[in-house]
Amino acid sequence: MIRKTLAATSVALAALLAGCSVGSTTAAPASSVPSASSAAMPKSEPVSLDIPSIDAHSSLVPLGLNPDNSVQVPPVSTPLQAGWYENGPTPGEVGPAVVLGHVDGNKQKGIFYRLKEMKPGDDVDIARRDGTTAHFQVTKVDQVPKDVFPTDAVYGDTSDPELRLITCGGAFDRAEHSYVDNIIVYAHLVNRAR
């Protein structure tokens, strides 16, 4: 089952993104969002991401697994490129779709440089190959240490279409050449634009 694969591979997420910059955020309370299961969309590959509140716009490349079963990430040499985890639900389908991006890399700001600034109620639009757009609203933003990554909260089954945006944050560990935390944005599908 895909969900079991997601949970198993997400253990390796602790070393998810190299070249991330320092960031901090506070956990925001989840807002009550009505069930969106009736608004679930059929499977369709995502093609682009638009987050107006943080001026983040990117095409989306598919990401799979590395040989060690860790989740692939877009190349650090192109830090403005975001990617979606193709072994999970596509954005708009029931379940948690996952989009990954760098906070920085190659000595420049990344696509998710300002992810830590997102707040509940912010909009995230993902254009899909079938010509529809999945419209999400943020419900929560967390900063968590990579060594206690919330696998079930990020990858566990959900009854509604949801979205997770993930990047690095926190202090930079010079010895490990990575950041100690992850910034995770949780969002629910609220409707679909045509």
What key phrases describe this protein's structure?
single chain, 194 residues, mainly beta, Sortase, Chain: A, two-stranded antiparallel sheet, 2 helices, 7% helix, Sortase_F
Quickly describe the structure.
It comes from Amycolatopsis echigonensis. GO terms for molecular function: hydrolase activity. It contains 2 helices and 10 strands, in the order H-E-E-E-E-E-E-E-E-H-E-E.
Structure, described:
- This protein has an eight-stranded mixed barrel. It has a two-stranded antiparallel ribbon with strand order 5-6.
- The chain has one domain: Beta Barrel (Sortase, Chain: A), CATH 2.40.260.10.
- Mean pLDDT is 83; it is low at 1-38.
- The protein has helices at residues 2-10, 151-155, and strands spanning 46-51, 56-63, 82-85, 95-100, 104-105, 108-109, 123-128, 133-145, 161-173, 178-193.
- By secondary structure, it is mainly β.
- It is globular and about 45 Å long.
- 7% of the residues lie in helices and 39% in strands.
- The chain is built from two helices and ten strands; from the N terminus they run αββββββββαββ.
- GO terms for molecular function: hydrolase activity.
Number of strands: 10
- In the sheet with the most strands, the strands line up as 1-2-3-4-9-10-8-7
Strand content: 35-45%
Mean pLDDT: 83
The number of helices is 2
Under the CATH scheme, which class?
Answer: Mainly Beta
GO molecular function: hydrolase activity
InterPro entries: Sortase, Sortase_dom-sf, Sortase_F
Pfam family, one: Sortase
Protein name: Class F sortase
